[in-house]
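Hi R.,

As promised on Friday, here is the backbone we talked about, encoded as structure tokens. Could you run it through your design pipeline when you get a chance and send me back a sequence?
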């Protein structure tokens, strides 16, 4: 039933929405990524000295240095976001091993944009999805945000600071990447997406929709709360309509409610929808529903926000572990950091999709984004792919600034069906103390205020049995490397669910099958555990054998830069991954695949079969398979056979002879399938294998291309370590190269990369509005080249904020009291006088009173790219006669007293100048600097 809306008096509405109703329903989310200016290094403004500078610098809008509106950034580098400058830098042994020996430092970004006059009255929000690590943001010289986490989004209301029309707005961001929050590579810069979101003054708040289905017996209820905010000038009534669309886009539920929101206030609308028999969200079939919230008044649609959700239940049981939709599911999890080869932490969504697909192929069903919030689009992917997520907060601290980081995470992520568990911390020394317990209790309470449907955990690495410890404050006990305590904890706390939140930490170098500690190489037979961890197989056995342990999270699914354990320089990235930095599988990938994949045959014979010089000597052969028995054939001749332990797999010693080594998987004597490794000859030809053959020409889509070498017979050469050069032609660019060698110091940007144990990766990205063939060519001396053509297909790129050029408007004018006689052009307010001379911005118009003369003074800086003697000083309108002086030199005059423009050439000179404009009024007429004063580049 449609509820009748009761609107406030029409006059109030009309006044409130006079300017915005024409724009009703035009929420715009524009990408703010092209055309930023970047400076590596800090820009320290001069220390304020003297009264004028101190007084002026203390005022809103007058930020100094590179935050200043008129800062000269003409020499800065132009680039597009997302950007990680860390990965562009060299490897340096004096830098921090934990951060991958990459210099971090401080950097500045600036971006110019216009706000059209039609934006006046709307609400404009600047969204920076993540900046590594500490950042401050200014808009038009006003500081608008400070954030002390490299993993949290900043949603900044910039409405009040905007200038509309010809005036250019400037955003300045200072990024301090010397600040570290982690012991892994964290990147540096504005490395996730950036947006400008324009909405009606009365709008749905960012992350303001909460729609998380609840099963009630046989029925499903969808409680929806929607936070509505207003920057309007008067209270407003509107109506909120929520519709639910099923995975096929059919409307399946609808409800409405009136909303009232005060001026500059917020309110929450609550609705409840009932659903019968929705399609459940499962790991095999992750059905997603769209919840669409529309805010309307009688003028039409004000705003609209869509979120996706899924119908599923989650439950942790103390005896039987995790249940999804009442089905027990062991968490076959991995922990991962967020960097990828070639691109650092600025990982395109399509590369994330590739990483998550690789994990899914490995049999992973749960991901822990360690130890921080992932990008929003990564959780969308997890929803779509059917992956469970342990969503982790970075900083353990319930003080207001930090608690806000946690509540931001929960508000942003609480609609995702993939998210099953909140984690408030990882391995905190205070975990077994009264202080730690009290801190945790407050953080858990903050989560529960926002979401009661998911349990909270904390990843503890000790202190489980302390008198007061954090397991007492959370729902699910989280254990990092505490396999020894699984049984004891369960016995001591038989009603508390538990999971391994981190385990394994074993080392492998991809494609290497002999450890050589001198060369920082560790073999891939899963026999190199860390001192605190266990092999992949041992760690999984401890979990698999205990139904009360909900599951585990292997450290790690994919390698990451930094923490190059157990080595240091020259090793620069980790050895822990089941895949390398490019997400190329290591042996652990196949071992876990054999553990976890149940619905198809997994069979992988290891190692490669290129052991020239080892003829007749035994080579250790491991077969990773979920088949019960395996037979090995060398050139068709049986050399070994044996039963497979479902966790340890099976290993043999096979005397080496070049040829074809084949593993035959068997069940009850019947063959299930075969896998082969063959001895190759010398590399003869390169092979490029793109993950996909097409790309969307939207400026975002990126494809990883695997580079390998084959011999004259087309057999892969797994030992090739050859230099490869890449060339790309067409509508795209190479955005990074890698090869997964943790000891490599080769550049990750550019067009060269060596194969490492037979493989390298080149990542290509389509250009915005690109279309047509993208030709990638790989060459290596003495080898036949490889060429692949990718098809860039026309796509609608996301709406983007046009790039504006800097615009020097001369502002901050002082206006002398009126004088009878022509003043000296050097006339200035006396030291410390903040009151006798007026303050102003054009239009500065004086009435026709006597006496007739006034001086208008302003200081300004001239950008280097306008200080060539050809720039123009343009007075759009001066009323009265006028003389214009600059630094004791007369630049020109206006002899006609009638209001009109004046354009003068600005001679080359110092960057900082002071203008004096002597204006003489005409009896009976207004006078003054009426129009704006701007500095235009030559040729404008
Ligand atoms: C854990 C920690 C991880 C990583 C790992 C290496 O203690 O939580 O971040 O450092 O050790 O084994």
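Update: got your reply. Pasting your designed sequence below so it's all in one thread:
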């Amino acid at each position: 039933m449609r509820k009748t809306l009761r609107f406030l008096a029409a006059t109030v509405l009309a006044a409130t929405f006079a300017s915005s109703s024409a724009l009703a329903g035009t929420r715009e989310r524009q990408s703010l990524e092209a055309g930023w200016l970047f400076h590596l290094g800090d820009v320290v403004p001069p220390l304020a000295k003297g009264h004028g500078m101190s007084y002026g610098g203390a005022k809103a809008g007058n930020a100094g240095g590179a935050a200043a509106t008129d800062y000269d950034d003409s020499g800065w580098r132009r680039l597009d976001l997302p950007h990680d400058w860390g990965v562009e830098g060299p490897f340096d042994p004096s830098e921090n091993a934990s951060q991958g020996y990459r210099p971090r430092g401080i950097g500045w970004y600036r971006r110019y944009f216009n706000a059209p006059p039609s934006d006046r009255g709307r609400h404009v929000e600047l969204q920076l999805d993540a900046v590594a690590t500490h950042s401050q943001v200014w808009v038009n010289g006003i500081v608008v945000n400070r954030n002390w986490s490299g993993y949290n989004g900043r949603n900044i209301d910039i409405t009040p600071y905007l200038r509309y029309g010809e005036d250019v707005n400037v955003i300045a961001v200072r990024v301090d990447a010397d600040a570290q929050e982690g012991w892994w590579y964290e990147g540096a810069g504005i490395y996730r997406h950036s947006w400008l979101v324009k909405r009606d003054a009365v709008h749905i708040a960012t992350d303001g929709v909460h729609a998380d289905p609840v099963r009630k017996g046989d029925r499903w209820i969808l409680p929806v709360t929607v936070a509505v905010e207003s920057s309007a000038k008067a209270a407003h009534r509107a109506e909120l309509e929520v519709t639910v669309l099923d995975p096929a886009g059919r409307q399946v539920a609808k409800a409405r409610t009136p909303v009232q929101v005060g001026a500059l206030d917020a309110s929450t609308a609550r609705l409840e929808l009932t659903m019968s028999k929705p399609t459940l969200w499962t790991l095999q079939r992750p059905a997603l529903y769209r919840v669409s919230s529309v805010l309307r008044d009688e003028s039409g649609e004000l705003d609209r926000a869509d979120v996706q959700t899924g119908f599923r239940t989650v439950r942790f049981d103390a005896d039987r572990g995790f249940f999804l939709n009442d089905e027990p599911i062991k968490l076959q999890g991995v922990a991962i950091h967020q960097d990828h080869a070639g691109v650092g932490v600025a990982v395109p969504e399509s590369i994330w999709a590739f990483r998550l697909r690789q994990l899914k192929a490995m049999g992973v069903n749960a991901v822990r984004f360690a130890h921080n919030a992932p990008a929003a689009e990564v959780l969308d992917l997890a929803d779509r792919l059917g992956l469970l997520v342990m969503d982790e907060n970075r900083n353990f601290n319930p003080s207001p600034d930090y608690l806000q980081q946690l509540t931001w995470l929960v508000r942003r992520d609480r609609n995702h069906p993939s998210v099953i568990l909140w984690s408030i911390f990882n391995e905190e020394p205070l975990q077994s103390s009264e202080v730690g317990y009290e801190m945790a209790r407050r953080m858990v309470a903050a989560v529960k205020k926002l979401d009661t449907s998911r349990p909270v955990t904390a990843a503890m690495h000790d202190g489980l049995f302390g008198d007061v410890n954090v397991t007492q404050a959370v729902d699910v006990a989280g254990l990092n490397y505490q396999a020894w305590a699984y049984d004891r904890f369960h016995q001591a706390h038989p009603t508390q669910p538990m999971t391994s939140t981190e385990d394994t930490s074993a080392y492998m170098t991809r494609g290497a099958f002999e450890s050589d500690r001198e060369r920082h190489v560790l073999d891939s037979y899963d026999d190199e555990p860390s001192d605190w961890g266990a092999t992949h197989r041992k760690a999984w056995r401890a979990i698999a054998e205990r139904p009360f342990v909900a599951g585990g999270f292997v450290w790690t699914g994919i390698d990451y830069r930094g923490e190059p354990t157990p080595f240091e320089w020259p090793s620069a990235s980790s050895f822990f991954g089941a895949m390398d930095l490019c997400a190329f599988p290591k042996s652990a990938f196949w071992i876990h695949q054999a553990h976890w994949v149940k619905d198809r045959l997994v069979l992988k014979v290891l190692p490669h079969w290129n052991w020239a010089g080892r003829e007749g000597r035994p080579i250790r052969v491991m077969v990773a398979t979920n088949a019960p028995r395996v037979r090995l054939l060398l050139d068709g001749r049986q050399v070994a056979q044996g039963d497979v332990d479902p966790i340890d797999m099976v290993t043999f010693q096979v005397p080496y002879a070049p040829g074809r080594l084949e593993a035959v998987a068997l069940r009850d004597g019947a063959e299930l399938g075969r896998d082969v490794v063959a001895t190759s000859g010398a590399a003869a030809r390169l092979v490029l294998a793109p993950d996909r053959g097409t790309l969307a020409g939207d400026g975002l889509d990126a494809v990883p291309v695997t580079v390998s070498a084959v011999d004259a017979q087309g057999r892969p050469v797994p030992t090739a370590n050859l230099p490869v050069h890449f060339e790309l032609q067409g509508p795209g660019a190479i955005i990074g190269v890698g090869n997964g060698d943790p000891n490599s110091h080769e550049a990750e940007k550019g067009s060269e990369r060596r194969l490492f144990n037979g493989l390298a990766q080149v990542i290509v990205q389509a250009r915005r509005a690109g279309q047509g063939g993208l030709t990638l060519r790989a060459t290596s001396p003495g080898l036949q080249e490889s060429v692949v053509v990718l098809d860039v297909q026309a796509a609608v790129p996301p709406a983007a904020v046009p790039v504006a050029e800097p615009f020097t408007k001369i502002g901050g004018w002082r206006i002398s009291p009126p004088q009878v006689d022509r003043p000296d052009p050097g006339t200035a307010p006396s030291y410390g006088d903040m009151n006798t001379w007026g303050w102003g911005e054009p239009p500065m118009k004086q009435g026709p009173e006597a006496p007739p003369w006034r001086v208008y003074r302003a200081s300004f800086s001239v950008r280097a790219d306008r200080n060539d003697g050809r720039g123009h000083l343009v007075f759009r309108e001066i009323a009265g006669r006028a003389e214009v002086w600059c630094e004791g030199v007369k630049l020109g005059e206006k002899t006609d007293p009638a209001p009109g423009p004046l354009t003068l050439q600005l001679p080359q000179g110092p960057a900082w100048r002071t203008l004096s404009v002597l204006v003489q009024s005409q009896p009976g007429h207004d006078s003054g600097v009426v129009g704006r004063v701007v500095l235009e580049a030559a040729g404008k």
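One thing I noticed while checking it: Residues 1-24 have pLDDT under 50 and may be disordered.

Thanks again,
M.
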